[in-house]
């Protein structure tokens, strides 16, 4: 399982970084609404990781799938947060102030709040997507014996 979540977690982080750099090249990186596409990238990566793991296992347990989703998204979030920290504190020091200005905040605008909110959004997106995808991928508890006790139409 470690190989799967490392592979897909790093893949998600690379895709997030590439998407950010693409928006930077296009001059759209200062619009926070475009970060909604990050959820699509997270979702695709987590779902692919879960499907890959399920295809390689004869018995797919809910706990293992849930753990896989959380670890995959957690690794991606941490790696992307490290990249954004380097970008904000060393490459483009005015980027955080531009983002915070668009939020309309009335207090000291430190760049660290952008990193903290990025990590919180990454982990919450990971949790919600993992819960949703496990509903699709979990094994059904419905058995043929259980169906005989239902009312027929």
Automatic annotation (TrEMBL):
Transmembrane segments: 5-22, 28-49, 70-91, 111-133
Species name: Constantimarinum furrinae
Keyword Transmembrane: yes
Keywords: Membrane, Transmembrane, Transmembrane helix
Source organism superkingdom: Bacteria
Stated name of the protein: DUF4199 domain-containing protein
């Amino acid at each position: 399982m470690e190989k799967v979540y490392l592979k897909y977690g790093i893949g998600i982080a690379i895709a997030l970084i590439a998407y950010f750099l693409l928006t930077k090249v296009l001059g759209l990186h200062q619009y926070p609404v475009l970060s909604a596409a990050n959820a699509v990238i997270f979702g695709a990566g987590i779902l692919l990781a879960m499907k890959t793991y399920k295809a390689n296992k004869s018995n797919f347990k809910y706990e293992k799938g849930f753990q896989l989703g959380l670890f995959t998204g957690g690794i991606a979030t941490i790696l992307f947060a490290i990249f954004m920290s380097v970008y904000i504190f060393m490459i483009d020091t005015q980027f955080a102030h531009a983002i915070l200005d668009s939020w309309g905040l009335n207090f000291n605008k430190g760049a660290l709040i952008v990193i903290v909110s990025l990590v919180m959004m990454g982990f919450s997106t990971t949790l919600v997507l993992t819960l949703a995808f496990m509903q699709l991928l979990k094994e059904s508890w419905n058995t043929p014996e259980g169906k005989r006790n239902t009312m027929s139409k």
